[in-house]
Amino acid sequence: MPGFFDFTHAIARLPGRSAVHGLRDGSGADPDFETLASEHHVYVEALQAAGIPVDLLLPEEGFPDSVFVEDAALVFGEGAILLRPGAPSRAGEAALLLPVLERHFDLVLTLEEGHADGGDILATPDAVIIGLSHRTDRTGAESLAVLLSRLGKKAVIEQTPASILHFKTGCGMIDEETVLAVPEMAGCGAFNSLRVLVTPKGEEGAANILRVGSRVLIGDHWPKTRDMIERLGIETVALPVAEIAKLDAGLSCMSLRWRARL
């Protein structure tokens, strides 16, 4: 029987050159475009190597952050939801995804009230956790919970620590029973039914892992975290993310992934 992470489809978008001017929390050097594009290419290849066909969309230069497709939509085998990213400059990104979502899904719902970023939404086998953050507000979270119920999904709303941009900046699923979390999020009430592994000191940036099939994709500069995961008998695939990280982004946000219903 297929597992929770055995995805059959993915959507990703090539970065435009404008991506180097994307949003970030604080100041810092712009990423190098050629290196960022290379990191994205390696990422897409890793999804494909895991057996997931990737629908690769063209760049949208007018939307520098549109390469991070996960923030603008939420996908499950049962259907898709167009979200409302909290940053004003990203307001048009959901509409860009509508055509491709309509090709893949019979049911596409739309969040009409409040704001919610996909980076604040963690799907687990038991529930979909929505983290309130700088980009996801209470109105958006509660409206999203109603839409999730239409897809047969239980929603749980949690508060993201103020020091963390997105809920999934600080956590990611290792397997169906285990979540990796930064120390500030280890006590999250929504994790009560899960085993929580805490990122090693100095490797808090490793938390945004991505489980695909039998593998965990992880940034290539987190050796202690990789070792911790591999000790569980799970293969890790180390990917370069140095330039992407300059945009406060990680592995989960660069694709939409789901398992089609038979």
Helices and strands in order, then pairings?
Blueprint: E1 9-13, H1 33-49, E2 54-57, E3 73-76, E4 79-82, H2 93-104, E5 108-110, E6 121-123, E7 128-132, H3 138-150, E8 155-159, E9 171-175, E10 178-181, E11 195-198, E12 210-212, E13 215-219, H4 223-230, E14 235-239, H5 242-245, E15 256-258
Parallel strand pairs: 1-2, 4-5, 7-8, 10-11, 13-14
Antiparallel strand pairs: 1-15, 3-4, 6-7, 9-10, 12-13
Q: Structural class of the secondary elements?
A: alpha/beta
Overall geometric form? globular
Radius of gyration: 17 Å
Tally of DSSP helical segments: 5
Mean pLDDT: 96
Give the N-to-C terminal Cα separation: 12 Å
Helix content: 10-25%
Low-confidence stretches: none
Largest sheet properties:
3 strands, mixed
According to DSSP, the number of beta strands is: 15
H/E topology pattern: EHEEEHEEEHEEEEEEHEHE
Percent range for β-strand residues: 15-25%
Strand neighbour order, sheet with most strands? 2-1-15
Describe the structure.
It is a single chain. With 262 residues, this protein is α/β, with parallel strands linked by helices. 21% of the residues lie in helices and 24% in strands. It is built from 5 helices and 15 strands. The strands form 5 sheets. The chain has a 3-stranded mixed β-sheet with strand order 2-1-15, covered by helices on one side. The protein has a 3-stranded mixed β-sheet with strand order 3-4-5, with helices on one face. Strand 9 and strand 10 form a beta hairpin. It is globular, with a radius of gyration of 17 Å.
